[in-house]
Amino acid sequence: MAAELETSTLRPLTADDVDALIELNTLCEIAETGHPDHEVVSWIRDGVDEYRSYGIFDEQGLVAAAWLETEPSGHIGFEADVRVRPGLDKAIGDPLLAAIRSAAAAADPDRPLHVFANASADRARAWVEGHGATVIRHFWRMRIDLDESHAAAPAQRAGVRVRTVRDDDTDLREVFRVVDTSFQDHFGHDGTRTYEHWLTSLRRRSNLDLSLWWLAEIDGVAVAALLGWRLPDDEQEWTGHVGTLGTLREVRGRGIGSTLLRIAFAEFAARGLRKATLGVDAANPTGAVRLYESVGMHPDHEWVLYELPPLAAGTG
To answer: Which fold has domain 142-300?
Structure first.
């Protein structure tokens, strides 16, 4: 199949295309890294409605796809991706990239496009760089292998109370406040995401389990939060995943983050999960990487974040 695939085969994706989109993304991840990305699969399954997506089809099915976030995520750039079936010319994705860049420009002409790529994906990186994308950040997935030594929860720190999150509006608003405030120091955060949108996204997640969410309080006021998830892994088992860890600036350096992580690891281990992962900005200014290393985590995968500038007026 050549890159001159007719652009008339490009169409918006629908809910009926979710399985095909998951299959395409999984094939790409295995080709690039040797493993599926189960976090992305979970997002596609539960959160695809938050994105505008397009696909190119041939007689055998979906050969390339692209998606663009359409709802506020609290980041300065539009999150997007383009995937082309392994073995095919990456240029098949050109009209898809054009479609999402045009859609982004229509939504907000001043907002750049952010595209992640696996660090090892040389062809995909060369393709997006050929369209003028520049590297702006590196991110790591960090991992720890869990065993019986992690099963005992740590003692709580003096003056700090850690508890699980209740499924009520008061607690969930506290989680959102702590996370949104603590992430003001993180790369790309613009504070535009509302509680209502965050809650709607949360309720879409089929693997939501608030018994894996914790709040840390001082004098009854929440100052830190950890949001845990269960994800499948390559051995048809499950892994624990720290989706979010946020600590308010004024209480950092007091061991609250490490306590939350050890509590999460203990719960993961108690449930028979054999590893835990999380994603982190490699240049995080709050010392997150040092924190994760201090509890025994290590990098085991790298992503590169690219930025494409907004389309100039009259282009796209």
So the answer is: Aminopeptidase (3.40.630)
